[in-house]
Amino acid sequence: MRALSLFPEPGEPRVLFAGPALVLYAEKESAVLQENAPTWREFSQRTRAWLPAGRCVVVTNHADHPVQHASLIFHSRNFEPHLARLYRLIRESAARAA
Questions:
Q1: Quick one: pLDDT at residue 9?
Q2: How many CB atoms are closer than 10 A to CB 20?
Q3: Torsion angle of C-alpha atoms 29, 47, 90, 19, degrees rounded to 10
Q4: Which of 27, 39, 43, 20 is nearest to 79 (CA)?
Q5: Among candidates 63, 85, 84, which has minimal Cα distance to 75?
Q6: Which of 46, 48, 68, 93 is 20–30 Å from 36 (CA)?
Q7: What are the tens digits of pLDDT across the range 50-84?
Q8: Dist CA 57 CA 91 (whole Å)
Q9: Does residue 84 contact residue 20 with C-beta atoms inside 8 Å?
Q10: Do residues 18 and 54 lie in contact, with contact meaning Cβ atoms separated by under 8 Å?
Q11: Neighbouring C-beta atoms of residue 4, cutoff 10 Å
């Protein structure tokens, strides 16, 4: 704790990548991670600062089984629309640049 307390406060966020990016969070992230952890807040509030062409999305399932943390295998249909949109954006960006 003493070493952590000596770390400087984080500065203003800077751009990490200017291309299309997608951050996906499962709706039941709290099933594994601490529900009030700062990770979700940081990503949701700073996605555009770090990834200007990025989006931060919560992946949900409207059926009886909520999307659990790291369950891409079991909930792939819930992730697919978000991934398809990202790939379409990349393809359209490449076509415009050509």
A1: 66
A2: 19
A3: -140
A4: 27
A5: 63
A6: 48
A7: 889 998 888 888 777 788 766 677 778 888 999 99
A8: 20
A9: no
A10: no
A11: 6
Tokens of 89: 């954006």
Percent helix, percent strand, percent coil in the chain, to nearest 5: 45, 15, 45
Q: How many CA atoms lie within 13 A of 1 on its CB side?
A: 0
Contact 30, 41 (CB under 8 A): no
With a cut of 70, say whether residue 92 has pLDDT above it. yes
Alpha helices (runs of H) in 1-98, residue ranges in sequence order: 2-5, 38-50, 76-97
Q: Is the pLDDT of residue 22 over 80?
A: yes
Task: Return all residues near 17 (Cβ < 8 A) that are at least 6 apart.
Answer: 50, 51, 54
CA 80/CA 46 separation, integer angstroms: 24
